[in-house]
Design goal:
This protein has about 130 residues and is of the alpha+beta class. Helix content is about 35%, strand content about 35%. About 20% of the residues are buried.
Length: about 130
């Protein structure tokens, strides 16, 4: 049976809406679990670094004598909580700088834990996912 021009227009409209919905759902699925864009570190991110600093010394003894630690940039990954991928600049008492990437997990209650660290980084190394 033939359909009218009005019915055809309605069907096209419905298909357009379904297509837009599928695109939005696909974008949302990609966003969950992927590492977001890199941003300048905030005071909150710096506080997370400070909270895990004793663990950094355990896992990276070469950074233990750092006089100061500054969170430079970070990216987040939304999981059951949030993973923060943070580039940090460590400065020793002798003025030598070293960079490391920290992965800090913040659970749904707001507790933070150091879950991974990559040492030997440079100021130019990009923040990416790592285990």
């Amino acid at each position: 049976s033939a359909i009218t021009a009005g019915e055809a227009k309605n069907r096209v409209c419905i298909l357009d809406k379904l297509s837009a919905f599928a695109f939005a759902a696909s974008a949302m699925a990609r966003a969950l679990g992927s590492v977001g864009r890199v941003k300048a570190a905030t005071a909150k991110v710096q506080s997370y670094v400070g909270a895990v600093l004793s663990d950094v010394a355990v896992h990276a003894p070469e950074l233990e004598d750092a006089k100061s630690v500054e969170a430079v940039v970070y990216a987040v990954q939304v999981v059951a909580g949030v993973n923060f991928f943070v580039k940090c600049r460590f400065t020793t008492a002798r003025g030598k700088e070293a960079y490391a990437h920290l992965r800090i997990y913040r659970d749904l209650k707001g507790n933070v834990t150091l879950t991974a660290i990559e040492t030997g980084k440079s100021a130019d190394d990009p923040i990416t996912y790592f285990d």
